[in-house]
Specification:
The complex is a heterodimer.
Chain A (H helix, E strand, L loop, with lengths): L1 H14 L4 E9 L2 E8 L3 H21 L12 H6 L6 E2 L2 H16 L9 H13 L7 H9 L6 E4 L4 E4 L12 H12 L7 E6 L2 E5 L9 E6 L6 E7 L3 E6 L4 E4 L2 E4 L15 E6 L2 H12 L3 H11 L2 E5 L5 E3 L1 H5 L3
Antiparallel strand pairs in A: 1-2, 2-6, 3-5, 4-5, 6-7, 7-10, 8-9, 10-13, 11-12, 13-14, 14-15
Helix pairs in contact in A: 2-7, 7-8, 8-9
Chain B lengths: L5 H26 L6 E6 L2 E7 L4 E5 L3 E6 L2 E7 L5 H4 L9 E4 L4 E6 L9 E3 L1
Antiparallel strand pairs in B: 1-2, 1-7, 3-4, 4-5, 6-7
The chains are: A alpha+beta, B alpha+beta.
Chain lengths: ~325, ~120
C-alpha cells in the first residue's frame, strides 16, 4: 500500500522535472562565459550550447582588433586598411557599426567606437602596470584621429572604409552585448527551454524557469561591500554592469581604469559602477559604457528616453536609481 | 580485587569523560544533519555558483570538474586531476557536508535554507 501511494509522488518529483545544466567557456571575448539552461536531456543542452558557442566564436573573431583569422575579414582587417581601401566584411560587422553610429548620436557622443588609437595608448600603459601616465600631448594626438564621420559604411555592398589612415575602431564597449543579442535570437532554434547567459558580466535571460520556477532572479552587487544593491525577478531581460574596478592600473594610489571619457581623454570619474537593465543586451551594453562617462542629470535623460532601468554608484558610495530601476522588485 | 592506583583511576575517569563528550557531540551533529537546500560551489576561494539541491543538474566547473545534482544529493562525476579524491568521496546531501577538489581548488558545500536568499545570477 505504501508503495502504491508513493509511486505517483516519485513520478511527480522526478520524472517530469526538467533538469538544469551548466557549462562554461574561457576562450571568448577575453572573459568567462557561463551558460545555465534547462533542457530535457544532456544531449539537447549540449547541442544548444554548441550552436551558442559557434555564434559567440564567430562574433569574437569578427570584432577582434588584435588578431586576424584565415578566411574572414574582421575589424583588424578594417583597421589595417584605414586610408587604403574599403573592406568587404560580414553583415554582423555592418550591423554593429551602424548601431554604434546611431548610439553615438543618441548618447550625445558618449559612446564613440572611433577612439581605437586613444584606447590603445591607455591599454599599453595599463598592461605595463607601471606607475606612469601617458603624456597629454600623446593622448591629444590620438584623439585627433578619431571621428565617427570618417567611418564609411556601405550596407548593401557590406563594406567598411575608414577615411583617416591613423584612425582605428574599438568596439569593446558593445561587442559582448551584440553577441548576447545574437544568442538570444537563436535560442528558439535550440532545445533549451530557458537559460541565463553570462558573457563576462553581460547577462541575458531567456524564457521562464520550468518546474514552476517562473522568473529568474538577478542580483546586482555593490562595488563597495558584499551586499546587494538590488535583487529583482525577470524573464527575457538583460543586465550589464560597467565598473572602474574591472580593468585598471594605479598611479600614485589613483585608479586609472578602462572606461575612457571621449570629452576628457581620461578615465571617467563620475561613477564607480553603472548598471543598465534593458530588454536588449546590446542596448544595455552600449548605455552602461556611455552613462559611465555622462553626468547623472544627462544620463538620467538618456536612460529615460530608452525606457531602461539604471543604477549609478558614485566613488563616495552614493547610490542613484531611476524610476524604472525603482520599479524592479523580487 | 585488583588494586587500582590513584593515577590509573584518574585516567579512567578522564577517558570516560572524553568518551561521553564524544558521544554527546556525535549525537548532536547527527541530529542536526538536515537535508540541505542549496549547493554552493567555490573556485579559488570565490563563489562560483549556488544551485538548488532539489533541481537535477549537471554543472561543468571550468573544464576541470563535472558536478552532478541528482535526486537531492550531489557528487563529483569527473575531475581532471591525478588523485580523484573528490570523485571517490561520493554523494553528499546534508547541511555542512562538503566535497573538496584540492588540485583544482574547487569546494562544494551543502547549505541551509536559513542562509541568504540565493539569486540565480549576481553581477557587479
Amino acid at each position: 500500500m505504501a508503495f502504491c501511494l508513493s509511486l505517483p509522488f516519485f513520478f511527480a518529483s522526478c520524472a517530469f522535472e526538467t533538469p538544469m545544466y551548466e557549462t562554461s567557456y574561457y576562450d571568448l571575448f577575453d572573459t568567462a562565459t557561463v551558460i545555465r539552461g534547462y533542457a530535457s536531456s544532456a544531449d539537447d543542452f549540449q547541442k544548444g550550447c554548441d550552436m551558442i558557442y559557434e555564434e559567440l566564436l564567430t562574433c569574437h573573431r569578427l570584432f577582434d582588433i588584435y588578431n586576424e583569422y584565415e578566411g574572414i575579414n574582421n575589424l583588424r582587417t578594417v583597421n589595417k586598411n584605414a586610408g587604403i581601401s574599403n573592406v568587404k566584411t560580414d553583415q554582423r560587422v555592418i550591423e554593429l557599426l551602424e548601431y554604434a553610429k546611431l548610439m553615438y548620436d543618441k548618447t550625445d557622443k558618449a559612446l564613440d567606437i572611433s577612439m581605437g588609437a586613444l584606447l590603445d595608448i591607455w591599454k599599453e600603459y595599463r598592461d605595463r602596470a607601471e606607475e606612469v601616465l601617458p603624456e597629454k600631448e600623446e593622448l591629444a594626438q590620438a584623439r585627433l584621429h578619431s571621428s565617427i564621420d570618417s567611418l564609411v559604411i556601405d550596407h548593401d555592398q557590406s563594406t567598411v572604409y575608414i577615411e583617416d589612415k591613423l584612425m582605428s575602431l574599438d568596439v569593446g564597449a558593445i561587442a559582448k552585448g551584440y553577441a548576447c543579442e545574437r544568442v538570444l535570437a537563436l535560442m528558439p532554434d535550440t532545445e533549451i527551454s530557458a537559460a541565463v547567459i553570462n558573457l563576462g558580466g553581460n547577462v541575458a535571460v531567456y524564457g521562464k524557469k520550468p518546474n514552476g520556477g517562473g522568473d529568474w532572479s538577478i542580483g546586482v552587487n555593490s562595488p563597495f561591500d558584499k551586499g546587494e544593491l538590488l535583487s529583482f525577478k525577470c524573464s527575457d531581460l538583460s543586465a550589464v554592469t560597467s565598473g572602474d574596478y574591472q580593468r585598471y592600473y594605479l598611479v600614485n594610489g589613483v585608479k586609472y581604469h578602462h572606461i575612457i571619457d571621449p570629452s576628457t581623454m581620461y578615465p571617467g570619474r563620475n561613477f564607480t559602477q553603472v548598471t543598465v537593465i534593458a530588454e536588449s543586451p546590446l542596448l544595455g551594453d552600449a548605455l552602461s559604457t556611455a552613462l559611465f562617462v555622462t553626468d547623472l542629470e544627462k544620463g538620467e535623460q538618456i536612460a529615460d528616453s530608452f525606457g531602461v532601468a539604471v543604477i549609478w554608484v558614485t566613488p563616495d558610495n552614493k547610490v542613484f536609481k531611476n524610476e524604472r530601476a525603482k520599479e524592479l522588485t523580487l | 580485587m585488583i588494586k587500582v592506583s590513584k593515577k590509573t583511576r584518574n585516567d579512567i575517569i578522564l577517558f570516560s569523560l572524553l568518551l561521553f563528550i564524544s558521544i554527546l557531540l556525535l549525537l548532536l551533529f547527527a541530529s542536526s544533519g538536515r537535508q540541505g537546500k542549496y549547493v554552493r560551489v567555490e573556485v579559488n576561494g570565490e563563489l562560483y555558483g549556488r544551485y538548488l539541491l532539489d533541481t537535477d543538474a549537471s554543472i561543468d566547473i571550468g573544464d576541470s570538474n563535472r558536478l552532478i545534482i541528482s535526486s537531492g544529493s550531489v557528487y563529483m562525476e569527473s575531475a581532471r586531476c591525478p588523485d580523484k579524491t573528490c570523485v571517490k568521496q561520493g554523494k553528499i546531501s546534508r547541511v555542512g557536508q562538503s566535497i573538496i577538489c584540492l588540485p583544482n581548488r574547487v569546494i562544494v558545500v551543502i547549505e541551509d535554507d536559513s542562509s541568504d536568499f540565493a539569486d540565480d545570477i549576481v553581477i557587479g
